[in-house]
């Protein structure tokens, strides 16, 4: 048996998926692919995505299970002797194919499941768009923690409220004695090489990724990816990885992409004054999120200057530079330099030069493929 994970309505997850495939989006303690694969130990996994990612050509075999990158299944789908499509909330999220021809592109996948008549509902969550990453994150944090085979160590000298069995730190994680961890509402996992500096507070469920430094911050029910620098307050948010929010300021109910740098006092709103449902732009169309609390979604390599304010339900593209302080527009396309008074296109050459410097500081070199993805994003810069 083989497993193939395919991109599904990636436009609903823009601008977070400009530089990496949809199944690489973080949720809980893992990315989407990691969550799915955890139910299939030892099964060879392949991926189907948009053509510009130049993923390896899939080599299906009988049988092959195809699963959508919008699916967060909570069970393993057993190999069946017949072809069946699978649903979550009655929406198709995959199928099992027994014999050729096997789909090898997104279009072929969509055509294939239309021909399969029998369906089975499975347990899990369905990600309709970027809002659902925030909606289900705390639930997935708890679920991922509960499935850990090795739960690390419980650090000594840290102030803990709640059941200590819900706190685990990798052996090479560093937690200073003045750190406070609240486990009343859920578990906390501190990954390898993470550092929690004195006077940091972590409220579970939360995950702190490898190599991340938390500097006197308050982290509430959030997922912080690898090699981030976090200060101030973060609530119910996801940091994909390699992001800087080192100073005072608040980020709540938000998703922050890779290589984002949030200047001192950058703060977003995640609640309307009338406590109403937040509206947000998804794939070019504004919709009602159905969520009372919803912050901002910021694409990779975006930077804010000191004193930046971000409105409720904002969607900010990749390679945006906002400076001079004040309120950002609610929607900003990719590759923009702007203030509250003017806006211009960010030059591609300069953007790549800056990205190389920023990434080199964390020991990451830009590959030609990554540079090509930046150029591809630039071609579509007037959309999110």
From TrEMBL:
Kindly indicate whether the keyword Repeat belongs to this entry: no
Keywords, comma-separated and alphabetical: Acyltransferase, Transferase
Any idea which GO molecular function terms this record carries?
Answer: acyltransferase activity; nucleotidyltransferase activity
Q: Which NCBIfam families match?
A: alt_bact_glmU (TIGR03991)
Q: What is this protein called?
A: Glucose-1-phosphate thymidylyltransferase
């Amino acid at each position: 048996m083989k497993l193939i994970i395919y991109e599904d309505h990636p436009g609903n997850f823009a601008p977070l998926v400009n530089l990496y495939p949809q199944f690489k989006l973080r949720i809980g303690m893992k990315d989407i692919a990691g969550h799915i694969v955890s139910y299939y130990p030892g099964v060879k996994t392949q991926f189907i995505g948009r053509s510009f990612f130049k993923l390896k050509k899939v080599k299906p075999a009988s049988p092959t299970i195809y699963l959508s990158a919008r699916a967060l299944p909570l069970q393993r789908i057993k190999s069946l002797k017949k072809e069946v499509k699978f649903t979550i909330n009655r929406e198709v999220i995959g199928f099992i194919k027994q014999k050729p021809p096997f789909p090898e592109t997104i279009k072929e996948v969509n055509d294939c499941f239309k021909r399969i008549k029998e369906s089975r509902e499975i347990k899990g969550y369905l990600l309709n768009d970027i809002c659902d990453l925030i909606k289900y994150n705390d639930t997935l944090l708890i679920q991922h923690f509960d499935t850990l085979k090795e739960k690390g160590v419980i650090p000594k000298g840290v102030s803990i409220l709640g059941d200590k069995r819900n706190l685990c730190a990798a052996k090479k994680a560093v937690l200073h004695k003045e750190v406070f961890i609240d486990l009343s509402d859920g578990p906390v996992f501190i990954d390898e090489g993470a550092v929690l500096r004195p006077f940091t507070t972590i409220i579970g469920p939360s995950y702190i990724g490898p190599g991340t430094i938390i500097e006197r911050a308050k982290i509430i029910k959030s997922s912080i990816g690898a090699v981030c620098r976090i200060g101030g307050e973060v609530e119910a948010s996801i940091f994909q990885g390699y992001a800087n929010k080192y100073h005072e300021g608040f980020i709540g109910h938000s998703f922050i992409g890779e290589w984002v740098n949030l200047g001192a006092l950058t703060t977003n709103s995640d609640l309307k004054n009338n406590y109403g449902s937040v509206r947000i732009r998804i794939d070019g169309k504004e919709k009602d999120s159905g969520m009372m609390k919803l912050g901002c979604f910021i694409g990779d390599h975006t930077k804010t200057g000191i004193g930046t304010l971000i409105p409720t339900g904002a969607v900010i593209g990749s390679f945006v530079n906002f400076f001079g302080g004040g309120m950002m527009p609610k929607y900003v396309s990719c590759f923009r330099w702007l203030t509250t008074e003017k806006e211009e296109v960010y030059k591609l050459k300069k953007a790549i030069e800056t990205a190389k410097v920023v990434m080199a500081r964390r020991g990451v070199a830009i590959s030609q493929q990554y540079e090509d993805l930046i150029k591809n994003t630039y071609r579509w810069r007037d959309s999110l």
